[in-house]
Amino acid sequence: QVQLVESGGGLVQPGGSLRLSCAASESISSMNVMGWYRQAPGKERELVAVFSYGGSTNYADSVKGRFTISRDNAGNTVYLQMNSLKPEDTAVYYCHSRRLSRGVLGLREYAFWGQGTQVTVSS
């Protein structure tokens, strides 16, 4: 099983910045999809920013221009730089990855989740 460990969450004022980190136990270059989701109280978990198939990026409309996803393949780490934070960004942020693996029965996709890190944006 792939282990994902998030860090960098905390309390920040509106307009402030945070950088989240996700350390993976395996090579992130082997992941077909890797990045960040979030879940606010009373709401469903939603995509924030991911590296998708082919290395392209996919951002939620609500964070475009404010958040930037990046990666360090050598360090098996994915980052989320969050700028111009808003109260509506308050949520638990989860690192997520998916990987296609070839086995006896053929291709199969596996999904992995970190434990989550709390981000609170408040005055």
The unreliable regions are none
Number of DSSP helical runs: 0
Distance between the termini: 39 Å
Give the tally of β-strands: 11
The geometry reads as: elongated
Summarize model confidence as the mean pLDDT.
95
> What order do the SSEs take from the amino end to the carboxyl end, as H and E?
EEEEEEEEEEE
Structural class: mainly beta
Q: Helical content, roughly?
A: under 10%
Rg over CA atoms:
15 Å
Strand composition percent: over 45%
Main sheet properties: 7 strands, mixed
Secondary structure topology:
Elements (H helix, E strand, L loop, with lengths): L3 E4 L2 E3 L5 E7 L8 E7 L6 E6 L5 E3 L7 E6 L4 E6 L8 E13 L2 E8 L3 E5 L2
Parallel strand pairs: 2-11
Antiparallel strand pairs: 1-3, 3-8, 4-5, 4-9, 5-6, 7-8, 9-10, 9-11
Could you please describe the fold and organization of this structure?
The protein is mainly β. It has strands spanning 4-7, 10-12, 18-24, 33-39, 46-51, 57-59, 67-72, 77-82, 91-103, 106-113, 117-121. 0% of the residues lie in helices and 55% in strands. The strands form two sheets. Strands 2, 4, 5, 6, 9, 10 and 11 form a seven-stranded mixed beta sheet that branches. The relative contact order is 0.31.
